[in-house]
Specification:
Elements: H1 3-6, H2 14-35, H3 39-44, E1 73-84, E2 88-97, E3 101-105, E4 110-121, E5 124-137, E6 142-149, H4 154-163, H5 168-183, H6 187-201, H7 237-251, H8 255-265
Parallel strand pairs: 2-6
Antiparallel strand pairs: 1-4, 3-6, 4-5
Helix pairs in contact: 4-5, 5-7, 6-8
């Protein structure tokens, strides 16, 4: 064999094999970039994506790597009912004691039908994007009155207590403050009043006697007599309490005298 023959150049198929390896590596790398957060860059690129990758379906969790050839990507549209949260507003009022919030209007959640574009991998949801919303019922805002007044001022204290009426405990607290301020009736007289109106109405400002028609906390008969203390006598516990305490003062002199009469006659 000649010297020339011993140094023959490599065959013509050797170099193309190296190019194929490089091309395959480039495809794998391209897929990895697409599947680990490089989707946007790939979409804007002029280079063509590998034919087995559906770029439009690759809006998936960018923190997880997927081998597209081993998983099924899908899209679907879903519509779901959802709650709509209400807002809360507060208005400052110097006639209410500092540190007191009085609820003037209770908040109510609304509802809506929300439509989403959902991405799935192997049937499991990995992302969703809102694409439509239809309001079924609007939320009702919560409205508060926030006190800024001096709690030691009796007018402020009374206004604060009145704002908390509507419950049995709130009605009682207002009555205790009112009768002491208006008539000087202390703990003993309040105890008698508490028992008397517990027997009459259980301190329910909407209580109605189905037989006589007597109404409210003091069981006024008829209920419209309480209108002397306010046109809101049907709904305002404070108006009923003021009328009832005045009635007791004029007729019996004190709650304990009224309670004694009640025990003897089962009415007062």
């Amino acid at each position: 064999m000649t010297q020339r023959g011993r140094h023959r150049a490599p065959g013509r198929h050797a170099r193309p094999k190296e190019r194929n390896v490089a091309l395959t590596s480039a495809i794998v790398a391209s897929a990895a970039v697409l599947l680990t957060g490089g989707i946007t860059a790939a979409a804007n690129s002029t280079e063509q994506a590998p034919p087995y990758i559906d770029v439009s379906a690759l809006v998936i969790d960018s923190t997880v790597s997927y081998n597209v050839k081993d998983h099924v990507l899908a899209n679907k549209v879903v519509t779901e009912a959802e709650e709509v949260a209400y807002t809360s507003t507060a208005t400052e009022d110097a006639s209410i004691a500092t540190g007191t919030d009085i609820l003037k209007q209770a908040g109510e959640v609304g509802s809506a039908e929300v439509t989403y574009q959902v991405k799935l991998v192997d049937g499991k949801e990995v992302s969703r994007t809102e694409i439509g919303r239809s309001v079924i019922s609007k939320p009702v805002a919560e409205i508060l009155v926030r006190g800024t007044g001096d709690p030691n001022d009796i007018a402020v204290a009374l206004a604060t207590a009145e704002g908390k009426t509507g419950t049995k405990s709130g009605n009682k607290a207002y009555a205790k403050l009112w009768i002491n301020q208006e008539f000087g009736w202390g703990e003993v007289q309040y105890s008698c009043l508490e028992t008397l109106w517990f027997r009459e109405s259980n301190w329910n400002h909407k209580a109605t006697n189905s037989t006589t028609g007597a109404y409210g906390i003091p069981q006024s008969l008829p209920g419209r007599k309480m209108a002397k203390f306010g046109a809101d006598w049907k709904t305002n516990p404070a108006t009923q309490i003021q009328w009832g305490a005045n009635y007791i003062d004029k007729r019996y002199g004190s709650p304990c005298e009224a309670l004694d009469y009640f025990h003897a006659h089962n009415w007062y």
